[in-house]
Amino acid sequence: MTQKTYTTDVVIIGAGIAGLWLHHRLNNMGIHALLLENNAIGNAQTLSSQGIIHGGAKYAINGIFSKATQAIGAMPARWKSCLNGDGDIDLSQAKVFAENQLMWSKDQLSSKMVSFFASKALSSRMQTVDKSARPALFQHQDFNGALYQLDEPVLDIASVIQCLIEPWQDRIIQFASDTDITWQQDNGHIQSLQLGNDIQINAQQFVLTAGEGNEALLKSLNIKKPTMQRRPLQMVLCKAKDKTQALPTIYAHSLGSGSKPIATITSHFDKNDNVVWYIGGNIAEQGVGKPFENIITEATALLNDIMPWFELPELEWATHSINRAEPKQSALTRPDTAFVETKNNVHIAWPTKLALAPDLADKVIDKIQANLQKGEHQTLTDLPDIQISEPLWDRAFK
Ligand SMILES: Cc1cc2nc3c(=O)[nH]c(=O)nc-3n(C[C@H](O)[C@H](O)[C@H](O)COP(=O)(O)OP(=O)(O)OC[C@H]3O[C@@H](n4cnc5c(N)ncnc54)[C@H](O)[C@@H]3O)c2cc1C
Hints:
398 residues; alpha/beta; FAD/NAD(P)-binding domain; 8-stranded mixed beta sheet; 6-stranded mixed beta sheet; 20 strands; 24% helix; globular; binds flavin-adenine dinucleotide
C-alpha cells in the first residue's frame, strides 16, 4: 500500500468521550481536527460508564465541598443545554434515561441528616420526592425510607456517541490496535506522526485523550510526567432470566448508615429490551479480583439488604472489570477536576469523569487557540466505516 499523507490543525488520539467531545467542538469552531482510534469507539471507560451526569451531590453529602464539587456542579446544566439543542454541541437526538438520579435510604434518616440535606449548600442539588412522583420500585407500601432526587440526568451514552460522531465522521481514522505510532519531532516539538507504514499525519497540535492508552503514548514520546494511575473496578450486572419478570428501571444511589452511598444502580437495555441493572459503588471497588461466585453472592445479599421490600426475580449475572485511568494522585484518591497538561505542542488529558468532558474540552481549546494558525486541509477519502463498540449490556453476559 502506498503511504498517504494528511495535514490537519490538530490530531486527537483516543475516541472515548474526551476525544469525541473535543473533536466535535474543534471542528464546529472551524479548527480542522482528526481523531484517531485504535479500537471500536467507546470500547473502554466511556461505554462502561453508568451515564450519570454528576453534579457533585454524591461528594457533597460527605460534607466535602471541595474543588470537585464546584467544577462538577456546573456540568448538569451544561449537558442539559446540549440536550435541549442550545449548547456547545447538539445532543438533542441523545436519549435521556432519567431526568434525575435518585438517592434512597431504606430507613428514615436521622433528623441531623435531614437538616443537613435541607441546608443551603445541598438543597440546590437535591430535593425530596413526593410520594405520588416516586418510581414504581419506591411506591411499595413496605418502603418506609427516604427518597431524594438529584439534579443529575442519566444518559444513554451510546446515543451521545452517535451525536458526537455523526457530523464529523469523515475526520475520524480507525486503525488496528497493533499499529505502531511513531513520531517525527524537532527539539521536542512534534511535527507529524506515522501510523504503521501507511499513513503520515502532519499537524500543529497533538492531544492525547487515550484514557489508559495515554501511558504507552507518553512512553513513546519519552514524556516522563504527568504519570497515570489506574483505579480498578469489578462492576456487577444482572437481569431477569425471564423477560416477563423484567427488573424495574431504577437510577439511584443507595445511602447506608453513613453519608456515603454504598451502591449505585443504573438500568440499561439489552438487545432483547430486557432491563439490565448495572451496579457500582463499594461492591465494585472492593470486588476487584474476587471470584465471580463470591461477588455474585455479595451482590445478592446487598440487593436484599438495600431493598428488602422487593422480591428479586430469578437473575442472570455478569461482571465487568475495567480500570479508571486518571492523572496520578497521592494515595490513589479520586482527582478533583478535568486534567490537562501541556508539553510543547502535546496536550495530555484525562477528564476523570464523563460528566467533565465539556470542561476538559474548554481547557484544551484555550491552550490550542493560543498557538494555532488555522489551515486549509484536504478531505479524507476512502476511510472505512466507523466501528462503534457493542453495548456492554450484550457483551458482558456472553
Ligand atoms: C465502571 C465505570 C463507571 C463510570 N460511571 C461514570 C458515570 O456514571 N458518570 C461519569 O461522569 N463518569 C463515570 N465514569 C468515568 C468515565 O467513564 C471516564 O472518566 C471517561 O469515560 C473517560 O473517558 P476518556 O475518553 O478519557 O477515556 P476512554 O473512554 O477510556 O477512551 C479512551 C479511548 O482511547 C483509545 N486508545 C487507547 N490507546 C490508543 C492509541 N494508542 N491510539 C488510538 N486510540 C487509543 C481507546 O481504545 C479508547 O477508545 C465511570 C467509569 C467507569 C470505569
